[in-house]
Amino acid sequence: MQVSNKKIDQGKAFDWGRVSSDYAKYRDVYPPVFYEKILRRGCCTAGQAVLDLGTGTGVLPRNLYRYGAKWTAVDRSERQIAQAKVLSEGMDIAYYTLPAEQLDFPEEAFDVITACQCFWYFDHEEVMPRLLRMLKPEGRLLVLYMAWLPFEDPIAGASERLVLKYHPTWSGAGERMHPIELPDCYRAAFEVAYHEEYLQKIPFTRESWHGRMKTCRGIGASLSEAEIASWEREHKKLLAQIAPAAFEVLHYAAMAELKKKK
User: Is 122 helix (H, G, I), strand (E, B) or coil?
Assistant: First the structure.
């Protein structure tokens, strides 16, 4: 399903479903500490009902499944959900092809709602009241994010510049470490219970970093097949010149834990 938003990439359409097979292979890169910090906040644990928004290939519920929460996960892309179901074989995770703007689960159905790498894509004036209604009185909304740092990491910076060569209006470039930004409508209904930002080096090979970059919105989800093929040739050549066979890329991760105002 194509998405177009004037605030993202100057309105150039993108579709994560186009890159689902690579997404399934290369986007499960969060380190153990990423999940440990979620668990330390008492979220996504045994006895809790959790809803994961924009689940993609189910990375979050799959990696936290063993801690005992009952997971429901949604994504607007049918292809992403299909990959999630394959990768979750044997796990009792309920997957639905559904955009966040159409959520209609029962009132006070969830202890925790998570949104990882997807929060900025939502129509928040439409989504926020739905999340507020579906959360239990002591429930939590957990917004999560991780991104490479192009100004601090030379390999990330070089790869990002090549993305911009092919997709000059890609607005995902130029990340710096900062707290998660919350639209005003959330601040009116929720209070920030906790937030944290931290640095993390993520290990890659040339192949896995190439796959990670291909699955960014600026390449696989938005360019033509010919453009993607040309970018791939150029990026592989670039990595052969600047990157060892195995290396680490500096990222920052951020979380914001919100609770309902009383």
Answer: coil
